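Run: sequence + S-adenosylmethionine -> complex structure.
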Amino acid sequence: MLLEKKWDLQIYCNYTENWGGLMRFLKNPVILAQHLLRQILRPGERAIDATAGNGQDTVFLANLVGKDGEVFAFDTQPLAIHRTAERLKQTGIETRVYLINAGHEKMKDYVHGSFQAVMFNLGYLPGAGKQFATRPETTVPALQQAVELLSPGGILTVVIYVGHPGAIEEQKAVEEWAASLPQDKWDVLRCDYPNRINDPPYLLVVQRVDL
Ligand SMILES: C[S@@+](CC[C@H](N)C(=O)[O-])C[C@H]1O[C@@H](n2cnc3c(N)ncnc32)[C@H](O)[C@@H]1O
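>> structure
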C-alpha cells in the first residue's frame, strides 16, 4: 500500500493495530468524520459546527482548534444552544466558541474568512421533536455556503440519516448537490454501509482541492 500523506499513515495505523479498532473506525459515520477531521484540523485554525445539537461535535472541534482557534456553532433551537453551552462550560473551553442561534442557511451573514473544517450532522435533536429536523431547502444552501468557506485542503463532513420523516427527500437533495460540485475545486467521498439493516446513517466528505 502506497501511503502518500501523513494522514493516510495515521488512519492506516489506527486500523491495522487492532481489529477492534478497524470495526469501530468503519462502523459509525460520526467516528469516521472525527478521524478525518483529526488529520486535517490543527491548533489555531477555525471550524464551523453547522448543527450544534447536544454540543458533542462542537466540543470535539473546540478541543482540536485549541485555545488559539475558533469554532462557530449554529442551531435553530434554543434548547440545542443551551445544551451546547452547558457542555462547553463543563469542559472549560467555552471562550473559543461562538454559539449562534440561527439557521445554518444564514451562515455567511455570521462568519467571514475561511475555515479548515465544517461539520454537519443532519436530522433531529434526540428528545426534542422530529419537527425540528434539518430540511433540504435550508440544508442545501447551507452546504453550498460551507464549501465556499473552506480553505484549500479543508474538509466538510456531512452525516446523513435516512430513517425519519422527510429524510429521504433531504438525502436525495444532498446527494444531487454533492454530485454537481465541480471536481476541479472539490473532491467528494461517500462512505456508506450497504449490508446494514435499519437505515444506517452514512458520511459524505467534501475536500477543497484547488489552491
Ligand atoms: C442530529 S442533531 C445534531 C447533533 C450534534 N451535532 C451533536 O453533536 O449533538 C441536528 C441538529 O440540527 C439542528 N437544525 C435543524 N435545522 C437547522 C438549521 N436550519 N440550522 C442549524 N441547525 C439546524 C436541529 O435543531 C438539531 O439540533
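>> summary
The beta strands are 46-49, 70-74, 97-100, 115-121, 150-160, 186-191, 202-208. The mean pLDDT is 90.
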